[in-house]
Give the backbone structure.
Amino acid sequence: MSDVLTLLQRHHCMSRIRGKNTTPEILVRKGLHARGFRFRLHNKKLPGSPDIVLPKYGVAIMVNGCFWHGHKGCRYATEPKTNIEFWETKIARNRHRDEVTTAHLEALGWTVITIWECELRNSSQLDDRLDALAEEIRYAGEVKRIRDINKQQSGAAARREREALLRKQAELEAEINQLYPIPKRIRTISRAFDGDE
Ligand SMILES: [Zn+2]
C-alpha cells in the first residue's frame, strides 16, 4: 500500500469538501426517485444543509464520504500516512460538525439518516441498502404522523387512529428488522411514543 494518498484518493477527498452532486449522493437520489420518493436537495434553511430532505417524512439524509467524514472502523477511511496532522484535524472537525448538525436536526424533530459511501460500493449491496433506506423513511414518516396527531388532536377518534398507526409502525419495524437494523435514535423516538400512554 502506498504511503501517500493516490491521485485518485486525493481527487476524491477534494471533491468531498462539502461537495454537491457526488456519485454516492446521485446513487441515493436515483434510488429514492425510483422507489417513488420526492425530496428536496441541500436545504440551506436547515442545519448543515442536508444533502436530501423529505419533509413529508420528517427525514434528512446525509450522504457521507468515508474518508472525509472519518467513518469509524471503515477500511475506506484509513488514516493517510503523510500530512497526518493536517488530515486528522480536518477529519476530526468534519466529524464533530456532523455530530453537532445531527443533534441540531434531531432537536428540531427531524430523523437523520446517514448513508456511508462504502454501503453503496457494489450493485447488489446498493439495492439492499436503498430498499432498507426506503423502509427507514416510511418508518420515520409513521413516527412523524403519530407525533403530529398527538400535537393536534385528542379524544377517541385520534386515539383509534394513533393505535392503527402504532400497529402499522410495528409491522414496518418487523420488516425493517429483517432488512436492516433500525438506527438507535429511531428506536429511541419510538420508545418515547410508546411511553406516552
Ligand atoms: Zn465507510
Summary: The chain is about 55% helix and 10% strand. The mean pLDDT is 80. Residues 66, 71, 74, 76-77, 116-118 surround zinc ion (CB under 6 Å). The longest helix spans residues 123-152.
